[in-house]
What does this fold into?
Amino acid sequence: DGGITQSPKYLFRKEGQNVTLSCEQNLNHDAMYWYRQDPGQGLRLIYYSQIVNDFQKGDIAEGYSVSREKKESFPLTVTSAQKNPTAFYLCASTPTGTNQPQHFGDGTRLSIL
Amino acid sequence: KQEVTQIPAALSVPEGENLVLNCSFTDSAIYNLQWFRQDPGKGLTSLLLIQSSQREQTSGRLNASLDKSSGRSTLYIAASQPGDSATYLCAVPTGGYQKVTFGTGTKLQVIP
It folds into this structure.
C-alpha cells in the first residue's frame, strides 16, 4: 500500500545537537510538507517542497533545514539553533494540482534530554 | 492572513447522538476546505474535501457543508460511536500553491 513513512517515532535531542527526521513517500506525490504540532495549537508549516531540488520556508522555518534530493524523500533537520524543539512533527504530501487532500505520516515526537 | 477557528475545543456526547462540529475562516476566497481526523499520537487522516463550488460533501455517517460567503463550514456526524472519538481539524488553502492553514481542532469524546 502507498503511504508516508516517518522515522523514528520517538527522538531525543541533547543540547547543542542536530537531529534529522526522516520522511519517505511512495505515493509519487510532487509536493511534500513538514509541520510542527504543539499542544493546544494547530499545525504550523515549517518547510514545503513542490518539486525535487526546490523548497520554500513556511511560517516557522528558523532553526530548521530541509533537502529534497529525491522525489520520495524530504528529511527535516532540527538544528541546535531551534531553542524549543520539543513537539510532534508531521510530514505530508500531495499530488500536483489544486483541490487535492494532503496525506500524512504518523509523526515523530521529539523531546529534549 | 487566513485564520481558522474551531469551536468548541472539546465536546463529549453519549453514543448514538448526532453532533455538529464548527469551523470558521476569515478569508472567504478559498478553493476548497478539508476536514481531517487525528487519533492520539498519530498523523491526520483526510475525511472530506469540499470544493469551493460545492455546498456539501458526504461520506458514510459524515456530512460536511461549506458556506463561503459567511466563512463557515460544519461537519455533521450522525449516530456517533465510541470509535469516532478523536480530534477533528479543518484546513483551508492560504496564500500560496497547496499551502493550507489548520484550525486548532475539536476533541470529541463519544461515551458508550
Notes: Chain B has no helices and eleven strands.
